[in-house]
Structures are given as structure tokens and as C-alpha cells.
């Protein structure tokens, strides 16, 4: 299976996609990991394995109605003598609805503790809600390419629901389409069911390929795949590609203090 890119550039009016660097905020943590396996992005139990369990729920402006799912952020706390200078990288797997608007992220306890200096993690947990700063960074899945999981509630051969896994780079998926390898010009639009789950009730027959509209910063691009799903695709099975998305947004932000 091969992947290739075809670039279609569009200009976005908002700079927020590119310039969300070094934001000052607050972050809390989940006392239990149970909620992380039922997040709004749709990763399910797989969320517990993303970035070694360093995952987080984000406020609606970062969740972006599911568009922000899978985005990676480097986040570090600001408590001198308790927090390290590097922080940790987290993946957005859920939405955080904070009516008081006091915290941008709720991290897994593992990710929260990773922001602490050695032997200071318990002290950081006692703080509970920490002052932090964060920036969007590329997702890097070492040894893992982009994968497509066919959801269990798919019904061959017409209703197809897929979950996009291990999306690399610094990109958001804006749209998805599917086509038969035998009819490569007949693309069927898929709808965002929720989070990273896309579906269609008009799935074509035969071997299937996908194209995703992704954006990194101000540019939107088509990302094509070939022969990802076999003609007899099965619900509950994950199909892995051979190439990874690695686009990174170019931003014009004022540089913040170095992240070591």
C-alpha cells in the first residue's frame, strides 16, 4: 500500500490554528483513569495507550467539535521547586466542559506527575490545579503509522464507520472521503460521527481507499491513501498504512522562553 500527497492550498481567516503557542492557563488531573477510556474523541480503551497514557481532556475551543482530537501539546507547570522545565507531551482524547473556565486541560494523573521534578510528583498532585503554559507540537508515534480501525457497529457492505488512529504531525482532519480502488474518481463523502470517528451509509464495494482533508496552520491539503481496506473488511479490525502524516504548521508567533 502506498500513500501520496496532493496539495490543495486554501487560506484560512483565523490564525488560531497556527499561533496557539505558549498559552498561559491552568490544568488539573483525573483522579481515576476510568473516564479516559470513554472520552468524547472516541478512542475508547486505546486512549490509555496513546503516548504512554499521557492524555488529556481539553476545553471546547481546543476540542473544536472533534477536530482537535488527536492533537498533541507540550505542557509544563510553573511552580518553581516542584515542576521541571520540560513538562510533558499530551494527546487530546476528550472534551473538558468547565463552566467556570478555570482550567484548559484535565490531564491523566500520569501526565500530570510527569511535569514534576524527581520525587516531587506527590507534591504536585497535592497542588491539584497547577499554573501551566502549553504549545501545540507535532505528534510523533515512533514505529507506528497512520491506522484505520473499522468500528464494531459498521455493517458490511454499505454502512462503514472508521476511527483514525495515530495521526502524526501537527494537523487537524477537516474531512474524509472513501472510494473504491476500481473507481478512484468516485469519492463518497463521510460525516464526522463524533471525535475521530467518520461514517457513511453509502460505502462503495471492493478494496477501499481514503482521502482526508488535513490542515496545518493556514494550508489545507488532500492526503490520499490506496488500498487500505480489503474488499471483505471486517468490523473491529484495525488496518495499518505504511506511511505517516508528518505535516507541521508554520507559525508566526512571538517566540516564548526556550522549551528544554
Describe the overall structure.
With 260 residues, the protein is mostly beta strands. The chain has two domains: 23-137, Beta Barrel (Barwin-like endoglucanases), CATH 2.40.40; 142-240, Immunoglobulin-like (Sandwich). The protein is built from three helices and 15 strands. The protein has helices at residues 60-63, 109-113, 121-127; strands at residues 3-6, 23-29, 55-58, 72-77, 88-95, 105-107, 130-137, 147-150, 160-165, 172-180, 188-194, 197-200, 208-216, 219-225, 238-240. It has a nine-stranded antiparallel sheet with strand order 1-14-13-10-11-12-9-8-15, with no helix packed on it. The chain has a six-stranded mixed β-barrel with strand order 2-6-3-5-4-7. A hairpin with a 2-residue loop joins strand 13 (208-216) and strand 14 (219-225). 39% of the residues are buried. Residues 1-18 have low confidence and may be disordered.
Summarize the model shown:
The chain is mainly β and 260 residues long.
Uncertain parts = 1-18
Q: Helical element count?
A: 3
User: What's the N-to-C terminus distance?
Assistant: 38 Å
Largest sheet, spatial ordering of strands: 1-14-13-10-11-12-9-8-15
Radius of gyration, whole Å = 19 Å
Strand content: 25-35%
CATH superfamily descriptor of the largest domain: RlpA-like domain
Overall number of domains? 2
In this structure, how is the largest beta sheet organized?
9 strands, antiparallel
Notable characteristics:
single chain; 260 residues; mainly beta; Barwin-like endoglucanases; Immunoglobulin-like; 2 domains; 9-stranded antiparallel beta sheet; 3 helices; 15 strands; 6% helix; 34% strand; elongated; disordered N terminus
